[in-house]
Structures are given as structure tokens and as C-alpha cells.
Design brief:
The chain has 175 residues and is α+β, with helices and mostly antiparallel strands. The protein is 26% helix and 33% strand. Helix 1 packs across helix 2.
């Protein structure tokens, strides 16, 4: 169901991620952050750089359309999981849960990860709860929004990034 992204997928991945994270008013699913951050989340060049990195982007297809993606980046015995995105029209149908589980399995099998890390915006309690139901826990590490990372500009200068962690043997709650 999922496959590794290639350079030919980069533009479609960037389009999907921007629609999921920063959609127009009529395209919003439950996971967007458009009220919190302006600008694009990622561009095609940045996606291509992620594809060239030592990490992996997994994608879900529906015919010729990319309907979901997730990025896995190894770091010693842990993997950072990020850029989890599903098409706004398909959100709340389980695809995000499936992509997250696939990313965790991939991280363990291909990178030998014993734990996973990720980050969530501080003003996204519903998204934090989603990850907590899947076994992720807050680490206590809080960082300012990365305004210099070319991933958009916060609408509130107090916006922060919360770090999450999960051990590989942590089991999710069924929801």
C-alpha cells in the first residue's frame, strides 16, 4: 500500500503537504495549521532534498494521485517521524494512523530504531492527543517555532514546538 518516494514524486508531495498543513478555506481537514502559520510548509526543492537525504519518505497512492506521505529520518537508535500528511478530503478515515504505523515499522526494520521522535505545534492539542493515543509522550523539550527554517511564519510569535518520544514497544490505544 505504501512505497518509497522518488524524485518524480517531489512536486506532488509538496502540493499534498501544503494542502494538508496550510490549505485554502474550502479545503481544510482537521489537521491543518493555517490559522497558526502562514506561507508554505514545504516546497518541491525541500522535498527533493529530503528524498536525497539518508531518510525516507513513504507515500500512499490512489491511482496517479499521492494521498498521503510521511518522512522518516534516522538518528542513531531513534528515528524522527515528520511531515505526516493526508489529503484533506480523506482525513479522519484512518489513513494517517496507517501511515504512522508504516513509518514506525519502516524505522524499526530498515534503520534499527528502538524509539521514535516527532514534534507538534504547541497550539495543536487535538493533534497532540492523536499522537498520545498512539503511545507518544511529551519529552518536556519546548522550542521556539523555527522561523528561519523556511517552513512558514507563525501568526503568533509565542508559537512553540513540543517534542514527543515513543519507545518501539509502546502500544497505542485503539482509537
Amino acid at each position: 500500500m505504501f512505497r518509497k518516494a522518488t524524485h518524480t514524486d517531489a512536486e506532488k508531495i509538496a502540493t499534498l503537504v501544503n494542502k494538508a498543513y496550510r490549505p485554502d478555506l474550502n479545503e481544510r481537514g482537521w489537521t491543518h495549521e493555517a490559522e497558526l502559520v502562514s506561507g508554505t510548509r514545504i516546497n518541491t526543492k525541500q522535498v527533493a532534498e529530503l528524498i536525497d537525504s539518508n531518510g525516507t519518505i513513504l507515500i500512499a497512492n490512489d491511482g496517479n494521485s499521492i494521498i498521503g506521505c510521511v518522512h522518516i529520518e534516522p538518528a542513531e537508535l531513534s528515528c524522527y517521524i515528520g511531515m505526516l500528511a493526508t489529503s484533506p478530503s480523506l482525513q479522519n478515515n484512518g489513513l494517517g494512523k496507517q501511515l504512522l504505523a508504516a513509518a514506525e515499522d519502516f524505522a524499526t526494520m530498515h534503520y534499527g530504531a528502538t524509539s521514535y521522535k516527532m514534534s507538534v505545534l504547541s497550539s495543536r492539542p487535538e493533534l497532540l492527543a492523536f499522537y498520545e493515543r498512539r503511545g507518544y509522550q511529551l519529552t518536556g523539550t519546548i522550542s521556539p517555532y523555527p522561523v528561519d527554517a523556511d517552513v512558514g511564519q507563525p501568526r503568533n510569535l509565542n508559537l512553540q514546538v513540543l517534542d514527543l518520544h515513543k519507545q518501539c514497544n509502546s502500544s497505542p490505544i485503539n482509537s
